[in-house]
Amino acid sequence: MGGTKYRMREFAQYMAGVLNIPTDGGLKNLTKRSQRYAMYKVGPVLAVSHGIGIPSMTTLLQEVIKLLAYAKVANPIVFRLGTSGGLGIPAGSVVVSSWGLNGNLEKTHNIPILGKTRKFPSILDTRLSQEVHSLADPSDEFQTFLGGTMGADDFYRGQGRLDGPFCDYTEQDKLAYLTKLSEMGVRNIEMEAPALAAMLTEAGVRGGVVCVTFLDRLQGDQVTPSKATLTDWQNRPMILIGRYIEKYLKK
Ligand SMILES: O=P(O)(O)O[C@H]1O[C@H](CO)[C@@H](O)[C@H]1O
Ligand SMILES: O=c1cc[nH]c(=O)[nH]1
To answer: Name one GO cellular component term (predicted).
Structure first.
């Protein structure tokens, strides 16, 4: 899974290459007339887009969990291949998440159910995240880190940005917050990880979050690399996940 339709098409195409699966007739979007998400299948790999943020991602994830159950898929593994803002690491680095943190700095996904807020632990499979991290190669043109991921409910103030339309805190407040996150072991900020971790844990499905970082948030708020660079960087999580899937299928 990943935010955009384009990225998930690219991932499906990439996996076709890794697994040597011909796509002569072209990749088909399996969602047909539904225009909200896109879904491609290449051999045993399902690539699905999930949009921006927790409500969009969890709606899609629950549909996929049902789909996997109806299809009687044994031991599925779910990965999110995303983009994020890094904390104290070079832009273009990849972060393999070990846990998710919500905007209240709790390792839980909090959701109101029947009028009461319930909290679900957002821990990811440690062995899986360590194994994916171990597939980073010294010859890769990017660094890969293992660490916590904060999933905010907002791109601007929810991530401590100063460049949004609303701003009611100072640069000093922002840096104190980001430094606190960094000291807690958070390596990157995006908008889905705690919910994905919690929902997979509740479903008993193994999974992970692997995101490239578009900038170092300790250095600024604006995503400045060119579109071409960002498009290229989005392929980096695919490289690690491709290695994992290839290895897993050989076992
Ligand atoms: O790159 P994707 O997967 O879309 O993820 C990140 O990008 C979006 C914000 O621009 C959020 O969904 C965030 O989590
Ligand atoms: O800083 C960033 C970059 C990408 N996605 C996010 O949610 N935040």
So the answer is: cytosol
